[in-house]
Backbone:
């Protein structure tokens, strides 16, 4: 029988580091969420612009005028479904990701301030 060498993993943790999370990873996640929120917003705005251009090209090819189409309920529901819903979805996702990023930064700042006040 061979004897197994059991090695315990060594960590560079000190007593000052939090037990449940790594400040470096939390800061990285916060930064990624902030950047990704801007990509999401730009993507949804680009989708809204492309959809608007598609509606405009359909109207011009069929010889329709916007002032007469606004009175039609089906056109309003089409505009709502294809333009407003994706735009507001993108804005909502942007705000959620920004709130998550700011919230993580606040948690880190509170933790650093608490450690600093204990150290004095």
Residues:
């Amino acid at each position: 029988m061979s004897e197994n060498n059991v090695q315990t993993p060594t960590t560079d943790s000190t007593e000052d580091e939090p037990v449940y999370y790594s400040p470096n990873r939390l800061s990285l996640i916060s930064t990624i969420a902030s950047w990704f929120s801007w990509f999401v917003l730009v993507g949804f705005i680009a989708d809204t612009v492309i959809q608007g251009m598609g509606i405009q090209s359909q109207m011009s090819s069929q010889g329709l005028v916007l002032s007469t189409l606004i009175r039609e309920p089906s056109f309003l529901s089409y505009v709502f479904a294809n333009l407003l819903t994706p735009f507001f979805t993108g804005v909502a996702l942007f705000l959620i990701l920004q709130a998550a990023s700011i919230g993580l930064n606040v948690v880190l700042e509170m933790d650093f301030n608490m450690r600093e006040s204990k150290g004095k």
User: Anything to note?
Assistant: The chain has one domain: 23-119. The chain has a mean pLDDT of 84.
